[in-house]
């Protein structure tokens, strides 16, 4: 056996006490950092105008506490057992069946890693264009490769050292300062516009309180297949539970609340554009983009641990390098989805109701839209931009977050039926055109032959 091949399956072997370095502060800082993101703020903005500001904040608080509690409890299980997420799946499902959820987890982590790179790429290009540069099309490719190289550099090092030195000491204070600055800027803008009128706005009823809570819970719950990969490095389960719960709950409440505040005082179809309009928003947004790196790193690291559990001949680090390369490649080709008229805004949680509102105006545009009469179905799945009818409360997905999530809803039967039906219509149309052309050609041949016979007879 070569020296770079591990002797044991690290993902299925409990960590020894001497290998556990995370304390309460490390868990809190890690999950606060992972809970901060542009996507979380965008989800907060989606709660309006379906709910009033007060109802949205209550839903955010309840959903964050419940969802983060579930996340912390699974982290405690991973810390008490010392097993990674793949090890917990083996313990629950058995060795033979556990391979299926592990492979599915790897696939969704590949999609999320690529999507995080897309977020960082689009935000980077937006910042560059706001500054007067990065107007050429190739900057998107360069930005994707740059962020992919950064994640590749990080995955080559130690995860424990990254959390304890980089995230806890450097990244976390900068992110907190950026959130404080943005919160103060938009709170000042709200005060200028009048707090009483803004707070007194009522919801249009397009989203219920339970649906909003479900949408908020979706964020922390989406991290359940990953939390044990980091909690297993904790010294005791109680600190893992409390640190994970507190860190993610505070970050989730803050980012969701900030999204509500931004949508309330400065409505925009693109959250990045709204943040850039704030004084000092360029610097604050840049720091948040840098913090997005740990989200990509988290997806890649957990995916490599899962792959190592299936094929332990490769180390976690080698699988991590392969995961980064695959995520970068997917991120480079994601914009090609726009050529098919599909703006896929899929969600981790398979039943996120806030992203599946019906848009009756899509059916009215069906005759003009390339998807034809299936445009109403595409509108229900957020594949088409919603209509901006006055007073309808329809919100448009930001371009920076609406391109491709490659998550749970890509294989939805109705979507497949829609695409298949459209492809069939195109095939039938092409067949009819070809048959019509053949008939025309045959008619011309027959006419020519008849004329020739007439001339010979004459």
CATH topology category name of the largest domain: Hydantoin permease
Overall body shape: globular
Order of helices and strands: HHHHHHHHHHHHHHHHH
Would you state the CATH class of the largest domain? Mainly Alpha
What is the second-level CATH architecture of the largest domain?
Orthogonal Bundle
Please state the average pLDDT score.
Answer: 74
The domain tally reads 2
Radius of gyration: 26 Å
Poorly predicted ranges: 1-6, 336-458
Helix segment tally: 17
Query: Which structural class do you get from the secondary structure elements?
Result: mainly alpha
Bin the strand percentage. Answer: under 5%
N-C termini distance: 94 Å
Biggest β-sheet description: none
Q: What is the CATH superfamily label of the largest domain?
A: Hydantoin permease
Summarize the amount of helix as a percent range. Answer: 55-70%
Count all strands and give the number.
0
Task: Write structural notes for this entry.
- This protein is an all-alpha fold.
- It folds into two domains: 323 residues, Hydantoin permease (Orthogonal Bundle), CATH 1.10.4160.10; 46 residues.
- 67% of the residues lie in helices and 0% in strands.
- The protein is globular and about 60 Å long.
- The N and C termini lie far apart (94 Å).
- The relative contact order is 0.17.
